[in-house]
TrEMBL record:
Family: Belongs to the GSP E family.
SUPFAM superfamilies: P-loop containing nucleoside triphosphate hydrolases (SSF52540)
Domain Bacterial type II secretion system protein E: 65-346
Single GO MF descriptor: ATP hydrolysis activity
Source organism per UniProt: Dorea formicigenerans
Name the record gives this protein: CpaF family protein
């Protein structure tokens, strides 16, 4: 049985590597090699077309990864060395029957991906975050850290930006909560989106950002540019940079936030807060940049507040009470997302930060998702209104009479 790697070697023999080969010329060469092979051994037409795609992807794109990247049903790709590839489809993990033919080929693809994001990964620096041209998030871990590596994890994002209308159709949020949050965004409330891994924080942030007034100046700050802010003419996108081979040239999220404050933004959007940059983000929220947005990992709104406290203390030695006051005055609303046991993603709670009092940040739940049962394996539920918004000044200033 003719294998793709045999054909790959034959094409390499024919290629003139001293010059750039146009796609058309490469395609012709692939077809000629396939025709020669089928003359020696029968290859079904379907198999021949599949081999042609695999060979083209091996030379021009991301090898066998390309097939997974083009499959819209796949949301996550997990490569555990050359032997195992796992895919997430509809929230379920499945094992792929395909694998890389060699460690060298997998490492070539990794270097191709990482170079496209202007990042570096090698044995001296074996961990890196990168992104693909379509915005998909990539994490790479090489040996000697990964004993069965190289390990590649790719979180894919939909080709088209997800809208609130789609989230309502999927049951991730109800119309009432959506309309409430839209008012808050337009009125300039500072909103923090929390949730666990894979709960849909970036997707929800993108959907919510579509309601930012179009005449404002927005600055986005991310480790890897993943946000898709649509229809904002005055948009500045900043991305952090890792150190080079000499260990210099690093640009951190903290530096980008401080720089953004000098760029006259109306709102600042920090893709995700993970560490000491939390203090800089809070200072931005407390210096007149109303309507700013960010996300963070946590299991509940209160857990998010505790994590923010810890992250701020990583960046600055302050009394805990001072940190809590900064959080209470800077963040207006926490939207907490979750991934339920049926793999669906939902807004689980919308909470208002009321005040700092007696050594504690006071939080009031406004909406909460409550389960009512299951139907056809899907969790059913409703969003119950828990309390009214207390701080209505921004809504009133924005012209909303009904809160």
């Amino acid at each position: 049985m003719i294998q793709a790697e045999q054909l790959h070697a034959r094409i390499l023999e024919e290629l003139d590597l001293s010059r750039d080969i146009p796609d058309e010329e490469l395609t012709e060469l692939i077809h000629r090699v396939l025709d020669e092979a089928s003359g020696r051994e029968y290859i079904p037409l379907g198999k021949k077309a599949e081999l042609g795609r695999e060979l083209f992807n091996a030379f021009r794109k991301f090898d066998l990864l390309q097939e997974f990247l083009e499959d819209d049903e796949i949301t996550e790709i997990m490569i555990n060395g050359t032997q195992n590839i796992f895919l997430e489809k509809e929230g379920k993990l499945i094992r792929s029957g395909k694998r890389f033919v060699s460690r060298e080929k997998l490492e070539d693809v990794i270097q191709q991906i990482v170079a496209g994001s202007n990042r570096i990964v090698n044995e001296a620096s074996p961990i890196v975050d990168a992104r693909l041209p379509d915005g998909s998030r990539v994490n790479v871990v090489l040996g000697p850290i990964a004993l069965n590596g190289p390990i590649v994890t790719i979180r894919k994002f939909p080709k088209e930006a997800i809208t609130m209308k789609q989230l309502i159709r999927w049951g991730s949020i109800c119309r009432e909560v959506k309309e409430f949050l839209v008012k808050l965004v337009r009125a300039g409330y500072n909103i923090f989106i929390s949730g666990g891994t894979g709960s849909g924080k970036t997707t929800f942030l993108n959907a919510l950002s579509q309601y930012i007034p179009k005449d404002e100046r927005i600055i986005t700050i991310e480790d890897n540019a993943e946000l898709r802010i649509l229809d904002i003419p005055n948009l500045v996108t900043l991305e952090a940079r890792c150190a080079n081979l000499e260990g210099t040239g690093e640009i951190t999220i903290r530096e980008l936030i401080r720089t953004a404050l000098r760029m006259r933004p109306n709102r600042i959007i920090v893709g995700e807060v993970r560490g000491a940059e939390a203090i800089d983000m809070l200072q931005a929220l407390n210096t007149g940049h109303d309507g700013s947005l960010s996300t963070g990992h946590a299991n509940s709104p209160k857990d998010m507040l505790s994590r923010l406290e810890s992250m701020v203390l990583m960046g600055m030695d302050l009394p805990l009470g001072a940190v809590q006051r900064q959080i209470a005055s800077g963040i207006d609303i926490i939207v907490h997302l979750g991934r339920l046991r049926d793999k669906s993603r939902k807004v689980l709670e919308v909470s208002e930060i009321l005040d700092y009092q007696d050594g504690e940040i006071l939080v009031s739940p406004l909406y909460r998702f409550e389960e009512t049962g299951e139907k056809d394996g899907k969790i059913q539920g409703t969003w119950r209104k828990m309390d009214d918004l207390v701080h209505t000044q921004k809504l009133l200033a924005a012209g909303y009479k009904e809160v």
